[in-house]
Recover the amino acids of this structure.
């Protein structure tokens, strides 16, 4: 249901008190919290009769939300962040940034399909001692991200739980092929002879996480840049859509790490992928703060949410010329019986990699 | 993303071992668990190139799922169940039933809008010591419910967390008005003069919960009936759709309790609602097991997931004649300046109610 229930409280029908720094969600209860959040962000709750949200025929406060009519194929994804699993508690990102990132990671999945984001439902699991001002800050980050990418926040569910988590389900719409089927970027559409391009620079997010773990105070601009890459990723929604419209049909976002995510493409497409080590783009900030480790971080670090786009050279290069998003060609696709990702040096020799991905990354 | 990540394990790429009663999800890891669940339910993971699921153009194993093309207004809801918050751990329902109920409660929200359910995304938060066989049982319940109601399970997310929870986001499609707008059942469409009907019988689910809390062994058929009402609710999907097609536009499901849920309708519609106490339908099992409390349980107990349908008498009665779902007319809607739900006795006197709803229910 859209209307948030089961945050246990004896005070569920209490009038809304002005909140201050000390108020816990268990004090104002589920109903009070929804009302406060709705008002904070310009909505009435419960909604007056006949009042709805833009883009919705039925909004917050009914059994479900109902969208405007639309014709097409739906793209749908969901992602969860759990405290101490998906983000550090100490030092914690701001609740505003946690809200931003929770939506941004879902947006990156829609971007990686080349779709147009549409509607998000948010489920918050809140411990009873969660502070109301933190809930407001979290929703502030969600709203900022939703506005930046044209997403309608359609309500969701708020429940009591022992630990904090946020789950977002996000829908989008797919472009259409001439025959009406969905035109999307999948992992399984790479062909031998294709080239591989990546947006932006990679490795910054994991570098920001390493600095946070080391207890850095993020005084320099470069350190702040790396922390921002971790806490406020910028999903490549515009680029994904441009890629589909340009005729590309293969893509993935870098959530686990360059090599691991290219591995998903290699497996799904039944191909080999060769990456030229010297062409992997890293930021000046990464090279300044981690001069020795920059390359390793770039090829193995996750959570950058850049896009990998794979297709015929002419199509990829036309997209690179036309798009405002910076992109770098980093490799190509070859025929093989055993799907594989090879990172090669300037002499064409494969560089041995112990581990490719985010989960397994160990700082040396 | 659809492909399940961040269940922390060092063994994520391990080959799938035959599981037995002792295997924990942390042993086979995220990838192993997905592969096992997919195979258990007839899907290949990662999917072979070009293979997809019925109704989906892109299924499990990409950044997101993509549906077949369709024209209409989308209905969208989400619901979460957290262990020890939304269901008892001791005595626990079976994991199969927890899977069933997690989807059934979402289906009830689609039913309460009068829509046709379509696609579900499932997020599981699993503690590391969660047993693989329990995950398989949980998915068994999900699949059984999905098959019973024509829902496509489109994947989701599996993450590590300190406590078990399951979050489902479910989409459906709305019927259309002649002008193309969505034809749905909302809480705000009750009109003075309308009658109120309820499907099935109510109070059984909370009675089942009370018995479980008392540590009953559920030996009698009546006790088993009450437990089943709690653990395996039957969402009224067919009835919701019939109601919209018959011309009704006001409805809600009973998740919080008859009086509380009618209160949502009264508030959203700006009306008063009168319920005749003697007409509230309760089951023979409820009256047998709780002879003194049956009426109180029926009007205040939640989680029955029956539908309340409100509309012109002729329309409601035509629906009652045509539908296979048993329904009872229990009250009517009157004009008032202060939205209110009145439960009245045979003399028309209002029966005082201390609390109306599920969260506040206290066994006497």
């Amino acid at each position: 249901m859209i209307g948030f229930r089961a945050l246990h409280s004896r005070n569920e029908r209490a009038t809304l008190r002005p909140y201050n720094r000390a108020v816990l969600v268990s004090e104002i209860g589920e109903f009070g919290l929804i009302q406060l959040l709705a008002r904070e962000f310009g909505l009435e709750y419960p909604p007056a009769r006949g009042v709805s949200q833009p883009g919705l025929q039925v909004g917050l406060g009914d059994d479900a939300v109902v969208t405007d009519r639309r014709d097409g194929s739906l793209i749908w994804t969901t992602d969860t962040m759990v405290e101490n699993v998906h983000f550090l508690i100490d030092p914690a990102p701001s609740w505003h940034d946690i809200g931003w990132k929770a939506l941004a990671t879902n947006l990156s999945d829609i971007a990686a399909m080349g779709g147009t984001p549409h509607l998000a439902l948010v489920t918050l699991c809140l411990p009873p001692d969660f502070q109301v001002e933190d809930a407001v800050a979290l929703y502030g980050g969600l709203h900022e991200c939703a506005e930046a990418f044209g997403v309608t926040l359609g309500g969701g569910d708020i429940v009591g739980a022992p630990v904090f988590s946020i789950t977002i389900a996000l829908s989008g719409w797919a472009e259409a092929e001439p025959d009406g089927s969905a035109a999307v970027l999948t992992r399984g559409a790479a062909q031998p002879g294709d080239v591989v391009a990546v947006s932006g620079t990679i490795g910054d997010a994991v570098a920001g996480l390493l600095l946070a773990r080391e207890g850095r105070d993020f005084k320099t601009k470069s350190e702040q840049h790396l922390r921002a890459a971790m806490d406020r990723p910028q999903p490549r929604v515009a680029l994904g859509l441009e890629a589909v419209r340009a005729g590309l049909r293969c893509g993935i976002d870098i959530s686990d790490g360059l090599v691991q995510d290219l591995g998903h493409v290699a497996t799904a497409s039944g191909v080999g992928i060769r990456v030229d080590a010297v062409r992997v783009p890293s930021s000046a900030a990464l090279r300044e703060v981690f001069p020795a480790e920059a390359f390793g971080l770039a090829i193995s670090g996750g959570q950058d949410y850049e896009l990998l786009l794979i297709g015929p050279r002419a199509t990829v290069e036309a997209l690179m010329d036309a798009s405002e998003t910076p992109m770098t060609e980093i490799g190509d696709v070859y025929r093989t019986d055993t799907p594989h990702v090879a990172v090669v040096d300037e002499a064409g020799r494969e560089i041995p990699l112990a581990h490719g991905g985010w989960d397994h990354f160990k700082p040396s």
Observations:
- The radius of gyration of chain A is 22 Å.
- Chain A touches chain B through 81 residues (CB under 8 Å).
